[in-house]
Amino acid sequence: MRILHWHVHGSWTTAFVQGPHDYLIPVTPDRGADGLGRARTWDWPASAVEVPAASLRDTEIDVVVLQRPEEVELTEAWTGRAPGRDLPAVYVEHNTPAGDVPDTRHPMADREDIPVVHVTHFNRLLWDNGRAPTRVVEHGIVDPGHRYTGELAHAAVAINDPVRRGRTVGTDLLEPLAAAVPVDLFGMRVDRLPPTPRITVHEDLPQARMHEELARRRVYLHLTRWTSLGLSLVEAMTIGMPVVVLAATEAAAVVPPEAGVVSSDVDRLISGARMLLADPGAARAAGQVARAAALERFGLDRFLTEWNTLLKGVV
User: Fold this and answer.
1) Domain membership flag for residue 145
2) Can you give the pTM of this predicted structure?
3) What is the per-residue pLDDT across 140-192, written as a single tens digit (0 to 9) for each?
4) How many CB atoms lie within 10 A of CB 170?
5) Structural domain harbouring 209
6) 243 partner at 20 to 30 Å CA-CA among 7, 72, 74, 146?
7) How far apart are the C-alpha atoms of 113 and 300, rounded to whole Å?
8) What DSSP string runs through 94-155?
């Protein structure tokens, strides 16, 4: 199967392109948001092929996997085929709804010809999907292996663009956590964060290198208030890290309490992080629970099987 698919979410796509298909990734001369091409910091197989946008009209395509509303028009403009009418299509919803929650209407809500595939049950519940057919395919993870050492008595957190995204990703919670424990912040555009005592910034590391560095920290913090389910959290669990998790959105349902601390009480998160940093044995035991839970629920084979079945049903 030849799948047209934009490079929008690198971590999700890293799992998606592991399947048995050819993945056509649009690229534009400026490698802008509509034409990033192949990833530069994730490891993708050769079956994920860059296709110049100008060549898509003459390219054989079996199905398009949409991820943003504007890709409906982009597909028609670049391929000459309308998604859902001339070209089989599905729409992956990565995000929690914005706006007037829980009444936010999905961009595909008025269409019956493009199924909406949510990455969490929380997403499907919160969006007003209208007439659109819906289903859930939860995340899949390429297993990085058990890498945890916890040799550094620091807490790690991964947030992209923390200044712009602010309270949504829990940027405001970094300072009270850092007042209690040393925090290492990983991600993209984290250099925009004003210098804060006890927060060390690690900017734009490739995925494999970031996994290595995360694994050296004793505990992982997930402070996001409003997201589907942070893939960085699932990756940290898979590495074998104990986790301290804000009990919001889908995270509250997928992280077992024995994997660390899951709470909406920030004081409880702080005390839990302190406890895990002070007790390497307890931290390692919690990390083993976290890894087992992540592999059971977010295994790559399950993810790819569900996607293959879904795509065969659409084409």
Assistant:
1) no
2) 0.94
3) 999 999 999 999 999 999 999 999 999 999 999 999 999 999 999 999 888 78
4) 23
5) 152-297
6) 7
7) 28
8) -S---SSTTSPBPTTTT-SSS-EEESSHHHHHHSB-TTS-EEE----B----------EEEE
